[in-house]
Amino acid sequence: MSGPQNAPPRPDAAQNAPPIHALCAHPDAEFGGTLRRELVARGWRVEWVTDAAAAWDALERATHFGHAYDLCLLDARLPGGGPEELAERVHGLPGMASLPIAILTPGTAESSEEPRPDTPWRVCMAPFDALFKQLLRLVARAGERATSAPVLDLEAFEALVELGGSEDPGFVLGVVEQFGEDAAMLAGSIAAAIEAGDSVWLGRCAETLESTSANVGARRVAAAAARLRARSATSRCAGALRDVEQLRRDIAAARAELGKQLEARRAAV
After folding, report:
1. Averaged confidence pLDDT in the chain
2. What is the CATH number of the domain that holds 159?
3. pLDDT digits over 105-115, tens only?
4. Which of the two ends of the chain, N or C, has the fewest CB atoms closer than 10 A to its terminal CB?
């Protein structure tokens, strides 16, 4: 079935980027249906429920099956429980501590506050273009937060150095170089698995990358691999396509930081 007439183009369509996946909990069928249609017309995937209990069930299932939402929308007058209380419970679920949550409130003013993915953000429901702009800000802020973790776990790297000892100075260099080669290869395999829709292969590659990264202290890469491994538990692994380019950037950053650490130690000898 084709989309609405004169619908805006899907974002990043040229790069075949996966859509933003949102859960919307709103009791009003007319508004909820309109919101869903508008977001879908902009390339999003939207699941709509009508009360707090249904929203909680959907989010719990997502946790159980390793499926991730990019955004959760809660009506300020959501039946079955206050949105702030529900948001606090949601952020306590495994893997959802930083899920961005927007609380939809009546009004037309655009929020001037900076969104925080770990704190519910109140946004006005109208006009829709302003609401959409604010939701994009919230999702973007969550993405920035996900990539702000330290590139390198220095304690883990020091443990690797101690394992090599002074008698074998080439040990750490060899491990770091092998990590770079393996990580690049695994990133390619992960991308291929996602494109093929092979969740088993995706899970195996992500698990290997997670372990390999942890061995050298590449914390950000290990965290990204863990998120991909969680996604592999669901057949919707195509939702991970958006993460591959960021994963490659994280790998490049880890290799550069590891190189700096090795150079600093050579200079100190």
Report:
1. 79
2. 1.20.120.160
3. 887 656 556 65
4. N
Same domain for 34 and 52, yes or no, is yes
In the chain, the DSSP E strands lie at: 21-25, 45-49, 71-75, 101-105, 121-124
CATH number, domain containing residue 47: 3.40.50.2300
Q: Judge if the upstream peptide bond of residue 79 is cis by omega within 30 degrees of 0.
A: no
User: In whole angstroms, what is the distance from residue 19 CA to residue 70 CA?
Assistant: 9
**Sign of the CA dihedral with 177 first, then 179, 180, and 185 last:** positive
Of 33, 79, 62, the closest CA to residue 71 belongs to: 62
In terms of domains, do 142 and 170 share one? no
Lowest mean pLDDT among 9-23, 73-87, 127-141, 217-231: 9-23
2 occurs within a structural domain: no
Residues 87-104: tens digit of each pLDDT: 988 888 766 767 889 999
Q: How far apart are CA 205 and CA 103, in angstroms?
A: 37
251 CB neighbour count, 10 Å cutoff: 24
pLDDT at residue 16, rounded to an integer: 39
Residue 186 in domain: yes
